[in-house]
Amino acid sequence: MSERVTYKRLLRQFAAIGPYLREDLCEEGRYRFDCLSVCVSAKPAPDKREFWGWWLVLEQNDHHFRYHYQLGFYDADGVWLDKPVPKKHQAEVERTLNHFYKLLVDRLTVLECHLTPAEQVTNELAVTAA
Fold first, then answer.
1. CA separation (Å) from 6 to 73, 84, 101?
2. Which residues contact 117 (CB under 8 A, 6 or more apart)?
3. pLDDT digits (tens, 9 = 90+) for 59-92
4. How many CB atoms lie within 10 A of CB 54?
5. Strand pairing partners for 52?
6. Handedness of CA 97, 102, 106, 108 (dihedral sign)
7. How far apart are CA 55 and CA 22, in angstroms?
8. Contact indicator for 22, 40 with CB cutoff of 8 Å
9. What's the whole-model pTM score?
10. Fewest C-beta atoms under 10 Å: which of 32, 65, 76, 85?
């Protein structure tokens, strides 16, 4: 196995995936991502819009990563809330999460790292690269 992947290298690799990385919320060994999948209403000013989407936390132990995620609501104050996604938006939120997951797996594979769900992620909630 290759040497430990550095924090800075991981940040560069994760940032290259797309607009998901929340670098200001990351620290060595713990990385945070999110996606504003569906806009609730385009009427408010852009910085006050609310969204349905997901956030994901990735925790690192050497070359092994565990993830857990939550679907929910991003409010006008920029805070994620654990709220059930309306049925009409579930497919799009899940599509964006699965798309991100595939990109994440591809990046980690290149870095010779492994990704598994954290213990709190049940089989029904585990995302796939399919």
1. 32, 36, 21
2. 66, 67, 68, 125, 126
3. 999 999 999 999 999 999 999 999 999 999 999 9
4. 23
5. 38, 73
6. positive
7. 10
8. no
9. 0.90
10. 76
